[in-house]
Design brief:
With 597 residues, the protein is an alpha/beta fold. It folds into two domains: 274 residues, Alpha-Beta Barrel (TIM Barrel), CATH 3.20.20; 263 residues, Aldolase class I (TIM Barrel).
């Protein structure tokens, strides 16, 4: 959701609670509402005490803001005055961010009917009061919508005021205690300023709340703030995603930090912790098929899942969509020419009406009816059979390690590996075309050849169809940790060895081409690995926005048929690995070129 903050005074209200370098600030010029991006959906009036700005009430009632979610960041004292809260409601304000050190009476604000976030300012003098306030807020009714911890920026404070700031490790411990209280009370939580505390300086205190680190990196990447590399950056798993530490933090607290190992960063469980940066969930995706295959359509029936992989790009807070709504979408997809229906999630088998949706696809006449699943529920042979009887013809099963212990660690579901394997056995025995979806990450790419050999031995051809779909972990949405994404260069020898094993042992494979994100130049133009999958280029409607080609790509023989690489990959790793090649591509004449972006 697009968000804009209109700064009515130069400083954050947080700094006034700690001690600011400047005196009473003059108000900023009146913001030009007409200059706002039309795509902005949330507007927050911020800076100092916005209600004190002479133009605040005129701005709040500006007709050009009528259809936007309006909020105000304000010290608690400013909304304690009689009549202010009712006037805010009349002006259309929906969100209130009340800044306090813990010694304000917030009852009137909490009973106002506005969506109230309490912003708790963390500094040395008020630790006990802050935690006491958090306990009180979590135990009262009505509760705030959320608790946000505010850490003042050293650069905004006079030198003598910086002594009141908590060092990063102590700030992380305090924040974790507040977050834990809020989470147990069913409230939203997070940092008021998403910079929060860097993971290398948090001492592990915030590892249970890994989303805050993800939010930090996203913010710093957008703002392109000049950061400082410190010795701990060497060997840190976050080196590509994190630019370092803020200079004022290093100046104030020093550069002491610990590199974050990959096992730790991949173990952070990404969960939406507040709705302030909500990601819009698109659940229906028609695909173009330049390769000539039947038009493919994908429908996500939910977002929630019984696994929690760190590289998943789906919002796992999204519940099951209504069956009637999904049915209408399936019918529309068929009318528009779709003949390959993919039902995905989240985890589609958690939708209670999945068999009904499969049966609808069968009645309409889809040639292929597929689910993308982790297979946990289909470990029950009776349930697997019910899906096949309803109309299922193809199952794509997620399996990201062939070592049971490692697989369960990746998916965070004890016993999940054994259930997925049983589901594969069930679907193959029922005659279903079965494919293993294996996402290549920083943690597992060295195991690729072993994975292929294990699959060939465990699931021999005599037991039914099995193929392998390889895809690189990619930043398809803002929910993906960028540090799990490997570089093309580091995985190339392992991908090549694995595909050679596939060719030798007769294991079908695909997924790399098109939106799978591994174009032929990454294997030095060796088209042996692509001949069997050249008709499997499926393009989403927004592929031109999602994918990137360098200018030098025009010199490549494969360029007309290539989607490129994801822009998110280039933003993280650059485009130096894109290597145009020359080859005989006459065999590709049967394909339609990829539409120009």
């Amino acid at each position: 959701m697009r968000h804009a903050r209109l700064m009515l005074f130069p400083e954050s209200p947080v700094h006034g609670f700690v001690g600011t370098a400047r005196g009473l600030a003059e108000p900023n010029p009146v913001p030009d509402v007409a200059a706002l991006d039309p795509a902005v959906e949330r507007v927050t009036f911020a800076g100092g005490s916005p209600l004190a700005h002479p133009a605040f009430w005129e701005l709040a009632t500006d007709s050009r803001l009528t259809n936007k979610i309006l909020g105000v960041e304000t010290p608690a004292a400013a909304v304690a005055e009689a009549g202010v809260l009712s006037r805010l409601k009349e002006a259309g304000i929906a969100e209130l961010f009340v800044v306090t050190r813990g010694n304000d009476d917030l009852s009137v604000a909490l009973e106002s009917g506005l969506r109230v976030y309490v912003v708790l300012v963390a500094e040395r003098r008020g630790l006990r009061a802050l935690l006491s306030t958090a306990d009180t807020l979590c135990g009262r009714a009505p509760r705030p919508h959320g608790l946000l911890v505010a850490l003042a920026r050293p650069r905004a404070l006079a030198p003598e005021a910086r002594a009141r700031l908590l060092p990063p490790g102590a700030a992380a411990e305090l924040s974790a205690r507040v977050f834990d209280r809020a989470r147990r009370a069913g409230m939203e939580y997070g940092f008021f300023d998403p910079r929060g505390v860097s993971p290398c300086q948090s001492g592990g205190a915030l590892d249970a709340f890994g989303t805050v680190f993800h939010q930090r990196f996203r913010l710093l990447a957008r703002q392109e703030e000049a950061l400082v590399r410190v010795p701990a950056c060497d060997g840190c798993s976050l080196a590509d995603a994190c630019g370092g530490l803020e200079p004022d933090v290093v100046e104030t607290f020093g550069s002491a930090a610990r590199p974050v190992p990959l096992e730790t960063s991949m173990g952070w469980k990404l969960r939406p912790i507040h709705s302030l940066d909500r990601v819009d969930y698109k659940n229906a995706s028609p695909f173009q098929t330049p390769g000539g295959r039947a038009p493919r359509t994908l429908l996500r029936v939910n977002g929630h899942c019984n696994m929690s992989c760190s590289f998943c790009f789906v919002d796992r807070t999204v519940p099951d969509f209504a069956t009637a709504e999904l049915s209408r979408t399936i019918e529309q997809m068929y009318r528009q020419g779709g003949r390959h229906l993919v039902l995905s999630g989240g985890e589609p088998t958690l939708h209670p009406d999945l068999p009904e949706l499969l049966a609808l696809g069968k009645r309409l006449g889809f040639d292929t009816i597929e689910i993308q699943t982790n297979g946990v529920r289909a470990a029950d042979e009776a349930y697997a059979r019910s899906l096949v009887q309803a109309g299922l013809t193809r199952a794509t099963m997620s399996l990201h390690s062939v070592r049971a212990e490692e697989s369960d660690r990746v998916t965070r579901l004890p016993g999940g590996f054994d259930k997925t394997v049983r589901a594969i056995d069930n679907f193959r025995a029922l005659g279903i075309s079965t494919q293993i979806a294996h996402v290549i990450t920083k943690a597992n790419y060295r195991e690729l050849p072993q994975t292929v050999r294990w699959l060939a031995e465990r699931f021999p051809e005599s037991g039914g169809h099995l193929s392998l779909c390889l895809a690189i972990a990619q930043g398809i949405s803002d929910l993906v940790y960028t540090w799990v994404v490997p570089t093309f260069t580091e995985i190339e020898p392992f991908v090549r060895a694995a595909l050679d094993d596939c060719l030798e042992q007769g294991v079908g494979f695909g997924g790399m081409i098109g939106q799978g994100g591994y174009p032929p130049c990454m294997l030095r133009g060796d088209l042996r690995y692509y001949r069997a999958v050249l008709d499997q280029v499926f393009l989403s409607e927004d592929f031109a926005d999602q994918f990137y080609k360098a200018e030098r790509c025009t010199a490549c023989s494969f360029e007309p048929y290539c989607v490129g690489v994801r822009r998110s990959y280039v933003e993280t790793h650059g485009d130096a690995e894109l290597r145009p090649f020359r080859a005989d591509v006459s065999e590709l004449s049967r394909l339609k070129p990829v539409p120009a972006s």
